[in-house]
Each structure stands twice: as C-alpha cells, then as structure tokens.
Write a structure and sequence with these properties.
about 85% helix; mainly alpha; about 30 residues
C-alpha cells in the first residue's frame, strides 16, 4: 500500500490526537 501525503498527515493527526488524549487522561487521573 502506497502512502499519500494526505494519508500520512491524517495518520499524524490521529496519532497526535490520541497522544493528547492519553496525556489528558493521565493528568486527570493524577490530579
């Protein structure tokens, strides 16, 4: 499967979004 620039940016957006929610979850869990 060939990755298009759009597909890569989409994956990066999803990855950063999940990373952000993971941090938010950890912070809300700690405090």
């Amino acid at each position: 499967m060939k990755f298009t620039p759009f597909g890569i940016s989409c994956l990066e957006y999803v990855w950063s979004a999940t990373d952000f929610f993971c941090r938010l979850f950890v912070l809300s869990f700690l405090f």
